[in-house]
Write a structure and sequence with these properties.
There is one protein chain. 81% of the residues lie in helices and 0% in strands. The chain has 208 residues and is mostly helical. It is globular and about 55 Å long.
Length: 208
C-alpha cells in the first residue's frame, strides 16, 4: 500500500506545482488581499481536489467516454469561467485610479468566503483534472484498489495540494511582495487576466 501511495504522491506533486489557474488565482488573492483570504482560497482548492479525486475513483473517465457531450459541456463551462475571470481582471485593472492603490490590502467588499468560492470554482473549472486523476490512479494504483487505498490516495492528493498552495500564499502575502505588487498592480493584473484568458481558450480548443 505504501508503494502505491508514494507513486500517487510523486506524480500528483508534479501536477500540483505546475503553474496554472490555481497558482495564478491563489497567488493574486494572497498578494492583493490578505494571507487569510489566500488560505480561504486554498481551502476551496482542497475541496475541489477531493471532488476530482472521488470522481476519479468513481470512474468518471468511463462516463466521459460514454457521454462525450457531458465532458464537452463541462469543458466549455470551465473555459468560459476562466475567460470571464481574465476579462474581469483586465477590466477592473483599467478602471482603477491612482488613489485606489492607496487602499488597504484587504480591499472593500472582498471576504474570505468569496476567496473560498473563487478557489473552489477555479479548481473545478478544468474537467481535465478528473481525467488526470483517473490516469494517475490507473498508473499508480492496482486495477481493483481497495476502498481504503483509494480514499487514502485522495486524502494524500488533497494534503499535497493544500500544503503547496499554502506555501504559495505564505510567500506572496509577505509584506515585501505585497508592497511590490501595489506599485505595479495594474500591469500585473492585466498580465494575470491575459493568462487566465489563455488558459480558458486552450481548454476550450484542445481536443480530447
Amino acid at each position: 500500500m505504501l508503494s502505491h501511495l508514494l507513486a500517487v504522491a510523486s506524480v500528483w506533486l508534479v501536477a500540483a506545482v505546475s503553474p496554472g489557474p490555481n497558482f495564478l488565482m491563489t497567488a493574486r488573492i494572497a498578494v492583493a488581499r490578505s494571507r487569510g483570504a489566500g488560505f480561504a482560497a486554498v481551502c476551496g482548492i482542497g475541496i475541489a481536489t477531493a471532488v476530482w479525486g472521488i470522481c476519479g475513483l468513481a470512474g468518471i473517465k468511463a462516463l466521459f467516454l460514454a457521454a462525450p457531450w457531458a465532458y464537452a459541456t463541462l469543458k466549455l463551462a470551465g473555459a468560459g469561467y476562466l475567460i470571464y475571470s481574465g476579462v474581469r481582471l483586465i477590466v477592473l485593472a483599467e478602471k482603477r485610479s491612482a488613489a485606489d492603490a492607496a487602499l488597504p490590502v484587504e480591499g472593500k467588499g472582498f471576504s474570505s468566503s468569496r476567496a473560498f468560492w473563487i478557489g473552489l470554482a477555479t479548481s473545478l473549472a478544468n474537467p481535465r483534472s478528473a481525467l488526470s486523476v483517473a490516469s494517475i490512479f490507473a498508473v499508480a494504483l492496482p486495477a481493483q484498489p481497495s476502498l481504503a487505498l483509494g480514499l487514502a490516495s485522495v486524502v494524500l492528493m488533497v494534503a499535497i495540494s493544500v500544503a503547496w498552495y499554502a506555501c504559495v500564499v505564505w510567500l506572496f502575502a509577505a509584506e515585501a511582495v505585497s508592497n511590490g505588487y501595489r506599485r505595479v498592480r495594474r500591469t500585473l493584473d492585466r498580465v494575470a487576466g491575459g493568462l487566465l484568458i489563455l488558459f480558458g481558450a486552450r481548454l476550450a480548443l484542445e481536443r480530447g
